[in-house]
Each structure stands twice: as C-alpha cells, then as structure tokens.
Amino acid sequence: MTIRAVLFDYSGTLFRLEQDESWLTELTDHDGTPLDIEAQAELMRRMTAPVGQVVELDAEHVHAWNHRDRDPQLHRKVYLEVLKKSGVPRPEQAVALYDRLIDPSQWTPYPDTEAALKAASERGLKVGVLSNIAFDIRPAFTARGWDAYVDEFVLSFEVGAIKPELEIFRRAVQALGVPATETLMVGDSEEADGGARALGCEFALVDPLPTADRPDALLTALRTHGVG
User: Fold this and answer.
1) Is there a smaller number of Cβ atoms within 10 Å at the N or the C end of the chain?
2) Which portions of this protein are annotated as coiled-coil regions (predicted)?
3) Cα dist. 67→72, 151, 159, 198 in Å?
C-alpha cells in the first residue's frame, strides 16, 4: 500500500529533552549534597519516559500519572511529585525543572527532523504530529519555520485521548483526510506509538537516543516505507 500520510511522535522521535548542565548544577539532595552525573541522567530519563510509572506513587498520584497527558493540571501535579521522589526535595528547584520540561524552546530537535518533515511534505504527503503531551509544542516548530511542513497537530491534552487508544489515532487520520491503511506512524514507543497498527496504520520504530547519537533514523524510517 502506498503511504500518503505520515504521523510523527514528538518526544524521543522529532525532539528530545536533553540534559543541560546549567539546569542541574545547583540541584541538591535531602542532605544538601549536589546530585552526581548518574543521578542527573536518571532524573532526565524520568522526566521524559513515554510509558511506565517511574517512581512509587500513592493512589492519588497514580491516577494523575495515568491521566497526565490529558490534563495539564494533573501533569504538573504528578511530575512535581516524581521530581520530589527522585531526589529534588526543594519545591522551588522542582518547579524550575518542571517549567523547563514544558517549555518547547528547551527541547532539542534530532539532526534529521527538518529534513524528514520537509521530505514528506514536498512529496505531497499529509504530515501530522501526534503526541501524548500536556503542553503546546507548536512553538518548537513555528520558531524554526517547520510548521510549514505540518498539516495537523494532534495533542492528547487537546483531544482528551492518549496513545495507544484508538480514538487518538482515529482523530489524527481523520484530520489528515487519509485512510489509516495509507498512513505511517513514526515513534519511539512500541507500546504507545505502535498502537497505530490496530487502526491499520504502518509503524516505524525509532530509538530515543541522544540527538548526537541518532543522525538519520527518521529519514531511514521514511525510506524503508517508500517515502523520501
């Protein structure tokens, strides 16, 4: 089947929230000891994990975690708890880190993000960004002029559904006006993004490596499915 539309995930696929030493140098644990490099890396992993509960939570926060990408208030509530339980006891430090998490300007694009979006768009394919997210990521694209390559943004907190629920994939393909069977979903999570297969989409998995270590996975995924 010819691919006529491509849906891209955001976090770990097109962009990645990467460790900036300036964010973490002043972080201290309960004893006032600076967090070591390993602890800092684990903190970043917990802030961006696409699926799976990353710390032990009580029932109230489990509910918030499970619905965090539907509701910005629940997202903030549970991530501040995650940060507290991950060695960031001071509320002002946790808030500062959280504010960076939800700031699209702090996210780093993969080296081939622009090329992949442009290649799909210039071939006449419909292009969508489909993300489990609780904040507006459009500024990350408009700041670079890449919104010109994207036909639709389908964001979980705006539509009230999350991957791998069929509803969010259905909303995305309907927005693009292309049948699911002619749509390719590109993402970094077999569990979440791979759910597109249940609707009939093709699926390409990319590894959410640091941006410096993944130069062309998006372009490779497109070529593998006859795009680009």
Assistant:
1) N
2) none
3) 9, 27, 13, 22
Tokens coding 55: 């710390």
Section 204-218 average pLDDT:
97
Tokens of 40: 């800092």
What are the b/e assignments for 48-59, b being 16+ CB within 10 Å?
Answer: eebeeebeebee
Average pLDDT over residues 198-222: 97
pTM exceeds 0.85 for this model: yes
CA separation (Å) from 199 to 123, 163, 192?
24, 12, 13
Read off the pLDDT of residues 107-154 as tens digits, 9 standing for 90 and up. 999 999 999 999 999 999 999 999 999 999 999 999 999 999 999 999
Written as six digits, the tokens of 109 are: 């694009």
